[in-house]
Amino acid sequence: MSRWMSLIMGVLFFLVVGCSNISVANSYPNNKLEHKLKDDHLMVIAHRGASGYAPEHTMAAYELAKKQGADYIEIDLQMTKDGDLIAMHDDTVDRTTNGHGQVKALTLKKIKQLDAGSWFNKANPDQAKASYKGLKVPTLEEIIRHFGNSVNYYIEMKKPQEYGKMNQSLLDILKKHHLIGSGEKKGHVIIESFDADSLKSIHREFPEVETIQLGDASKMSLSTIKNYAVGVGPDVTTMNRAFIKRAHELGLVVHVWTVNDRETMEELKRWQVDAVFTNYDDQARAMIEAQ
Ligand code: G3P
Ligand code: CA
Predict the structure, then answer these.
(1) Which stretches make up the GP-PDE domain (predicted)?
(2) Catalytic: 57?
(3) Fewest CB atoms within 10 Å of the CB: 101, 163, 193, 289?
């Protein structure tokens, strides 16, 4: 092959490769997704921690999720009577402790006296452990102090409107622990909520913080959500493949909840969902590694 021909071939080769790289980067206009694009794997979010194997929202459930290799530990937040942010799904302590009453009517001191593990042993005798008896309800700060930078945090503000201060308290804690703010690692913290106004106010104050709008896919306006969030968190029972395609076309990631069976996990992976919330993060991890 003449020198000129090999030179032309070389230039052509460079043009083809160069153009393909540029197009991928621009298909998601906002570069907030760079941590997703890099290796394109399906992210696993440990729903309430490894809650299929340990009492939800306890250090034991978060430790297990970390050990099982979850990409994020999910923390639902409620606020106590004295303004502390605790990890709890329900707005009462009845289901997941041996106590009774609304979280907002109880002080942290009272909540710390409760047993947040024995209920799980009763409800899941096959997963029961003596060490779960007497587990405590952790505060958000205790969780962050315990794990520091060793895990990524996926934090849901439950009913932030009811707890007027929840937004600010959350942002103050994340700033204090250098998890948000300029120069902090992207994607280390994701804030999720069903409440759009709270996400919008976080986006106004901390545009670099990644937020996810939760809800029913059939009721979501993706073009509106795009203005204040990097993605959507649809209930798995409300969405389909076309919804994912539309979201991706708008540069939004799709994090689906709650997926606890292998078949649905595999289907969602085929549909190129970006992340799943699951109580069984080890099974999701195994599915991903098997493929
Ligand atoms: O946050 C995603 C998913 O967890 C929402 O449902 O009720 O489990 O908080 P819930
Ligand atoms: Ca949640």
Answers:
(1) 42-288
(2) no
(3) 289
